[in-house]
Design brief:
With 462 residues, this protein is α+β, with helices and mostly antiparallel strands. The chain folds into 3 domains: 214 residues, Uridine Diphospho-n-acetylenolpyruvylglucosamine Reductase, domain 3 (2-Layer Sandwich); 112 residues, Alpha-Beta Plaits (2-Layer Sandwich); 77 residues, 2-Layer Sandwich (Alpha-Beta Plaits), CATH 3.30.70. The chain has 17 helices and 16 strands. The strands form 3 sheets. It has a 7-stranded antiparallel sheet, with helices on both faces. Strands 5-6-9-7-8 form a 5-stranded antiparallel sheet. A hairpin with a 4-residue loop joins strand 5 and strand 6. Helix 1 runs antiparallel to helix 3. It starts with a helix and ends in a 12-residue tail after the last helix. Bound molecules: flavin-adenine dinucleotide.
Length: 462
Amino acid sequence: MKQFAEQFKAIVGDKNVITSKAEMAPYGIDRTTLWQPNPSLVVRPDSIEQVQQIVLLANQHNIPLVPSGGRTGLSGGAVAKDGEVVVTLERMKRILHYSAPDQTVTCEAGVITQHLQQFAEQQGLFYPVDFASSGSSHIGGNVATNAGGIRVLRYGGTREQVLGLKVVTGNGDILDLNRGLVKNNCGPDLRHLFIGSEGILGFICEVTVRLQPPPPPQSVMVVSARAITDLLEVFQCSRKTVTLSAFEFIAQQAMDAVTAHTGQHSPFKNTSTTPAPCYGLLEFDTPNKANTITDFFAQCQQQGWIDDAVISQSERQSKELWQLRENVSESLSPHKPLKHDVAVRMEKLPEFIARMEVKLAEEFPQLQSVWFGHLGDGNIHLNVLKPEGWSEQRFGELATEVSGLVYRLVWEMGGSISAEHGVGLLKQRILGRQVAGTEVKHWLAARNSFDAHSVMNRGKVI
Ligand SMILES: Cc1cc2nc3c(=O)[nH]c(=O)nc-3n(C[C@H](O)[C@H](O)[C@H](O)COP(=O)(O)OP(=O)(O)OC[C@H]3O[C@@H](n4cnc5c(N)ncnc54)[C@H](O)[C@@H]3O)c2cc1C
């Protein structure tokens, strides 16, 4: 691929084609760190027209391209391990248009998610998609993965925010999809094919999202419970009592990992009931009536669903409580966890967790599993930890069997093996078990239509 460096330089300028191995390495991986980075070149376009020229060149010479956002992905989607050319949209980070009457913002794909949130705030509005990696991920990467996060329960995921997309297809066509309209029933809406397509159909270059009115003041409550089934009761009860923005779940082992890794203290004093097997984190509009929360707490305690609870008294305390949840993923990373990002319908969640725990204990008693996730939308992150003293290789040899066990139960219970992280390289081989062959046939037809020579993210997803 290096022979094409001069042609790429002619498109984006000399200094925007990276050729040194050391400088390219970070562009060839995401947060999975399971594969060795091996890009041939890294190209940094500055406009949609430059992206189009890159794609046309790639088609001419059969050059495989990997779209690259903030590389916070957890499925290997942005990995370049086979000498591909990485195309990073990091220079395309301009806010292009804000429309006050529409309450929408149009920006380039390389805008960092947190910057979009801050921009919304400056307009007195709110961009609700949020998660622990928002400080690094790009809006283009969020659209490509249909990122979810902590407030899906109230606002939906990325898909629900997107009103328009400008894309360059794998064939090099520029499509202006839906143009920021709220209503537009002119035939099939291709925008939705690109959302969640993980870079296999083309480059997302510009995004128009709707902004929300800012939520009223929020309260954060953490409750300790003896079983996840009890937390689900709390969830149902809280839905009827307050306006929920988030309902998250942290198992005790996850809480322990956070307190050990970050030095943060558990919000609960050590009593006979804490540490507890699990914790729920609720965020909701602070109720107008002072006794709403005390009545809610009393009801949950009377029913035996919770043992204890803490509620934030200030914004600083809310942030500290949220950190207990947001730091779980990073705190577990030293244990090299085998991650599973699964979803089942809420009505099946208690059964799924109970059966999964029994199966894991029976078949892999030597492994410790840690549960956490977005309980309020049925999305659970099940991390199985590498035992102390085991080499990565020894642990890796069990990975297929362990994940097989998890995914078989997910399938049996009608769930999803990728709730929000996408398929990428990680789940590409088993996707066929999740999605019916007839459906995949239509995906392939779509891919063929947008990217006839498969230059886009070859070998990923399908
Ligand atoms: C600590 C931590 C917590 C996380 N929590 C969550 C969470 O709660 N919810 C959640 O959904 N995810 C979560 N993630 C995963 C990740 O942050 C999201 O998937 C995010 O949307 C990825 O965005 P990115 O810009 O980093 O994309 P990348 O990792 O760069 O790319 C992801 C995929 O999108 C493609 N892509 C990137 N940009 C474009 C583009 N412009 N056009 C076409 N294709 C493109 C890539 O090729 C790749 O297939 C978490 C990750 C970490 C590390």
